[in-house]
């Protein structure tokens, strides 16, 4: 059952996601009218509505209550991952190939740690004996996710389809993240 605090958490997570998306747009040199309003005000509202929708749909399909929250946290994790990938890529000039695999790791791991704590204490609310009790299983699933994410990213960035290189890096990362999101939800 969704509670009032869940909507507030969803809005907070949406705000944090919006801040990070604005940083990603900066690295991609994308600027448009009202982007601050969209990402700092509209995204928090949409994330809270996503939590509500998950709770509403859970009346018929129970896992949607968790899935709405899981997706919200997943977007925050993706924003963390993408913003760090773009920062490191921008700082190093690495945008394609096997070396992208190495600069992919820090953002992925920080996003995973973020998601671990949000999933443990908000999405799935495991009442285990300790904060790190589920960590070995979580990292087992996550390491496979990191492998999948990196392999897909390396393969896709090794092929150019005429996009700006930094943009293609991000498009490739979206494809890699979709595969890993499915893997992670099933695994967790």
What are the main properties of this structure?
188 residues; mainly alpha; 6 helices
Q: How would you concisely characterize the structure shown here?
A:
Helix 5 packs antiparallel against helix 6 (165-187).
Radius of gyration equals 17 Å
Measured by DSSP, the beta-strand proportion falls in under 5%
The helix tally amounts to: 6
Terminal CA distance reads 20 Å
Unreliable residue runs: none
Largest sheet: none
Number of beta-strand segments: 0
What is the overall shape? globular
Helix content: over 70%
The ordered string of helix (H) and strand (E) elements is: HHHHHH
The average pLDDT is 90
Query: From the helix content, strand content and strand pairing, which structural class follows?
Result: mainly alpha
What does this protein structure show overall?
The chain is an all-alpha fold and 188 residues long. Helices cover 79% and strands 0% of the residues. It is built from six helices and no strands. The radius of gyration is 17 Å and the shape is globular. 35% of the residues are buried.
């Amino acid at each position: 059952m969704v509670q009032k605090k869940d909507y507030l958490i969803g809005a907070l997570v949406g705000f944090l996601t919006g801040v990070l998306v604005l940083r990603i747009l900066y690295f991609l040199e994308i600027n448009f009218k009202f982007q601050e309003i969209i990402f700092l005000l509209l995204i928090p509202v949409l994330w809270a509505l996503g939590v509500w929708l998950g709770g509403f749909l859970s009346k018929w399909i129970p896992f949607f209550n968790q899935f709405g929250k899981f997706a919200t946290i997943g977007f925050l994790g993706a924003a963390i991952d993408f913003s760090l990938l773009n920062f490191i890529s921008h700082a190093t000039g690495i945008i394609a190939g096997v070396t992208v695999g190495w600069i992919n790791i820090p953002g992925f791991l920080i996003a995973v740690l973020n998601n671990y704590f949000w999933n443990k204490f908000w999405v799935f609310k495991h009442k285990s004996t300790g904060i790190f009790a589920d960590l070995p299983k979580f990292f087992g699933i996550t390491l496979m996710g990191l492998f999948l994410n990196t392999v897909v990213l390396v393969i896709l960035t090794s092929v150019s389809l005429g996009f700006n290189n930094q943009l293609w890096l991000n498009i490739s990362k979206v494809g890699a993240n979709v595969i890993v999101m499915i893997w992670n939800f099933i695994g967790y």
